[in-house]
Amino acid sequence: MKKNLLLLLIIAFFSILVLAACGTSDDTDNTNGGSDAEETEGDSEEATEETEDEEAVSDDEVYQIGATQIVEHPSLDAAYEGFQAAIADAGLEAEYDFQSAQNDQNNASTIANNFVADGVDLIFANSTPSAQSSLQATSDIPILFTSVTDAVESGLVEALDEPGENITGVLDLHPDSVLTTVEFVDNYFEGATIGLIYSAGEANSVAQIEAVKEAVEGTSLSTAEATIGNSSEVQQATNSLVGEADVFYIITDNTVVSALEAVVAVAEEQGIPLIVGEPESVKRGGFATFGIDYHTIGYRTGEMAVEVLTGKKTTADIPVEAPPSMQLFINKEAAEAQGVEWNEDWDEDAEFLETVEEE
């Protein structure tokens, strides 16, 4: 009897040990299971954070911008610098492919076609010929132009307030600039013959020359013209007007402006006042202009480009703009060199610029 009782006690003891061991094993398994779940959740959170970081980097887009310019001279260069400044100030990253056509329309077409083949995000067309070539090359890639005098007459847009589906920009001529310049000459150089030198191949120039002729009607003034085909002909064309022209008026003709020093030399040698189309040309030896700042119009064009690149607007939503204001700029040093009789009115009316020698 006692043996049987002892045997039962031993069996019961071992059963308790077995149950305890199983309980411990289950607790351990449950504990480990909880740890694995937490680790999995932690790994998932880290993966999500990494994905978000990658997405943030991919949103930091670097825009590819093709910049085409008919020729390099200080006014156009200032517009391009203004355009780049606006893009940078907006916090956008951009890579620029700058191409100068070297004053050759065929080159301008090739440049535009290459930009299209490269699939740039936007084309900055700096001058009328560059804008025309770009528009002929693409109807899809946005084109933002500046340094264009008459966007309608040159066929870039049908109306200033209704630009094309892929083109808009900022003009480089204030609506009253030519008229005001002619009035200035009529007031201070009464009876003068205005010598006009321009490229007949630039629509931009032809439009301005027609505006000058129209403004001269009914004044004491008359005009004399000399046309050129390239910049190497500028000096000869200028000399051809000596003896006929009392005042030179160089409009914003890219070909002539690129060789402005040749006109300045003749103006100083012959004592003929040189009126120019923009302030940069005053810095290069022109006597006076009712002009606009090219850096400013380039900057405004860049602001338009930012709206297009970021998807806030399309070019069709942005009307073509004219410069908001103009100013009389005078170079006193040039005035003296060209034999200009000083008028005290200019002391109050003008902003004075000094000649800047090209490096």
TrEMBL record:
Biased composition, class Acidic residues, residue ranges: 36-60
Protein name: Putative ABC transport system substrate-binding protein
Pfam families the record matches: ABC_sub_bind (PF04392)
Keywords carried by this UniProt record: Signal
PANTHER family for the chain: ABC TRANSPORTER, SUBSTRATE-BINDING LIPOPROTEIN (PTHR35271:SF1), ABC TRANSPORTER, SUBSTRATE-BINDING LIPOPROTEIN-RELATED (PTHR35271)
Region (Disordered): 25-60
SUPFAM superfamilies in UniProt: Periplasmic binding protein-like I
UniProt cross-references to PROSITE patterns, sorted A to Z: PROKAR_LIPOPROTEIN (PS51257)
Segment forming the signal sequence: 1-20
